[in-house]
Amino acid sequence: MNRYQEEAAKLKKALLKDPFPYWMGAILLGLLNIVTVIIFKSGLGVTTTFSHWAAWILKALGGHPENWVFYQSESASKALAAGFMRDGGTMQNLGIIFGAMLATLLASQFRVKKIKNSKQIVAAALGGIMMGVGARLSYGCNIGALFSGMASMSLHGWVFMFAMFIGAFFGSKLLVKYFI
């Protein structure tokens, strides 16, 4: 193997196999947030778009989400009217989903794991429901409420961080006691 091939192998390992340092992730997330604000005129967010997806599906099935209080606001009604493929949040979420899948495949980390027992399914379902409801009640998820909120120096981002640490502490205690 010549020097060029060795260097290429090292670079491939560094980019695709080895974890990035935390500081690099922080810098990349900060830059991504800046680009997102420039392009979409709002910070990063995930869960509001999931609400829009459900509303678009309901509308396609004959429902009328435009009558809901949530869709009376200017930004939400614009998102509902814009549709799936013209929504910036949809593009962000699809980018997250396909980017994570691509990164996993490139790093050869994709695995289909056997579910251990029904307790694991119930815990995952309840955890997902609680996170979804909590995200909608708290002005977004850890991306929209925490990351974008703190980046814009909004009080809600800092309150979210404090509450998230408390919730994570007690949640980890419950997880260890009942599920691990």
From TrEMBL:
<feature type="transmembrane region" description="Helical">
    <location>
        <begin position="120"/>
        <end position="138"/>
    </location>
</feature>
<feature type="transmembrane region" description="Helical">
    <location>
        <begin position="90"/>
        <end position="108"/>
    </location>
</feature>
<feature type="transmembrane region" description="Helical">
    <location>
        <begin position="20"/>
        <end position="40"/>
    </location>
</feature>
<keyword id="KW-0812">Transmembrane</keyword>
<feature type="transmembrane region" description="Helical">
    <location>
        <begin position="158"/>
        <end position="176"/>
    </location>
</feature>
<keyword id="KW-0997">Cell inner membrane</keyword>
<dbReference type="Pfam" id="PF04143">
    <property type="entry name" value="Sulf_transp"/>
</dbReference>
<dbReference type="GO" id="GO:0005886">
    <property type="term" value="C:plasma membrane"/>
</dbReference>
<keyword id="KW-0813">Transport</keyword>
<keyword id="KW-1133">Transmembrane helix</keyword>
<dbReference type="InterPro" id="IPR007272">
    <property type="entry name" value="Sulf_transp_TsuA/YedE"/>
</dbReference>
<keyword id="KW-0472">Membrane</keyword>
<keyword id="KW-1003">Cell membrane</keyword>
<comment type="similarity">
    <text>Belongs to the TsuA/YedE (TC 9.B.102) family.</text>
</comment>
<protein>
    <submittedName>
        <fullName>Uncharacterized protein</fullName>
    </submittedName>
</protein>
